């Protein structure tokens, strides 16, 4: 068994969003001991180190990731599809916007607002001529906090693996997970 370094412990604690006090409580040790361990001021007993690592393992299991929230069925249109087809799909699925995906890769987004602002008689135009920028992308292991920050500025987040879309997350997905 390879023992974690003080820096490893600090990084893991910060990655799961725990304070030293919260970690100390979970590991049933004092906060000053956590601080001393992280600063490499003390060599803890193996049993103490094991409790700290187990508390971190448990906390990591509680972190909600993109893969826990995403819808794997990404309803989308292609850049060469007609605007009429995109509008019909939005109406059919009751969505106000859709990702535009080409060969599995997100290349833009189209919303009802994009269509309205494009003017009249745009139905036969390809989606590429009226689409907006793509929704931001995250990896499947992105945390709910990272996703929440993006959703403050965008309508959706695309989950990708190797550049290809494998899921989508909206504010409604986060809200339903928290309730």
What global shape is seen? elongated
Low-confidence stretches: none
Number of strands: 5
Structural class: alpha+beta
Widest β-sheet, arrangement of strands = 3-4-5
Cα-atom radius of gyration: 23 Å
- Helical stretch tally: 9
- β-strand amount: 15-25%
Average pLDDT reading: 94
Q: How far from one another are the termini?
A: 40 Å
- Largest sheet, if any? 3 strands, mixed
- The helix content is 40-55%
Secondary-structure element sequence?
HHHHHHEEHEHEEH
Please provide a brief summary of the model.
Helix 1 (6-15) runs parallel beside helix 4, helix 2 crosses helix 3 (31-38) and helix 2 (20-27) packs across helix 4 (46-62).
Describe the structure.
By secondary structure, the chain is α+β, with helices and mostly antiparallel strands. The chain contains nine helices and five strands. The strands form two sheets. It has a three-stranded mixed beta sheet with strand order 3-4-5. A two-stranded antiparallel sheet has the order 1-2. A hairpin with a 2-residue loop joins strand 4 and strand 5. The radius of gyration is 23 Å and the shape is elongated.
Tag the structure with descriptive keywords:
179 residues; 16% strand; two-stranded antiparallel sheet; 5 strands; alpha+beta; three-stranded mixed β-sheet
């Amino acid at each position: 068994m390879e023992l974690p370094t003080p820096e490893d412990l600090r990084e893991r604690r910060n990655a799961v969003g725990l304070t030293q006090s919260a970690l100390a409580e979970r590991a049933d040790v004092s906060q000053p001991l956590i601080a001393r361990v992280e600063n490499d001021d003390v060599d803890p007993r193996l049993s103490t180190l094991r409790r700290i690592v187990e508390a971190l393992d448990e906390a990591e299991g509680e972190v909600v990731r993109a893969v826990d929230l995403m819808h794997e069925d990404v309803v989308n249109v292609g850049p060469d599809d007609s605007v009429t087809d995109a509008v019909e799909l939005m109406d059919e699925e009751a969505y106000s916007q859709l990702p535009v995906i080409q060969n599995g890769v997100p290349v833009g987004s189209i919303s009802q607002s994009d269509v309205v602002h494009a003017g009249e008689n745009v139905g036969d135009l390809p989606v590429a001529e009226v689409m907006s920028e793509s929704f931001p992308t995250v990896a499947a292991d992105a945390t709910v906090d990272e996703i929440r920050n993006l959703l403050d500025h965008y309508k959706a987040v695309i989950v990708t693996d190797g550049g290809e879309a494998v899921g989508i997350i909206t504010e409604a997905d986060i809200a339903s997970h928290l309730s």
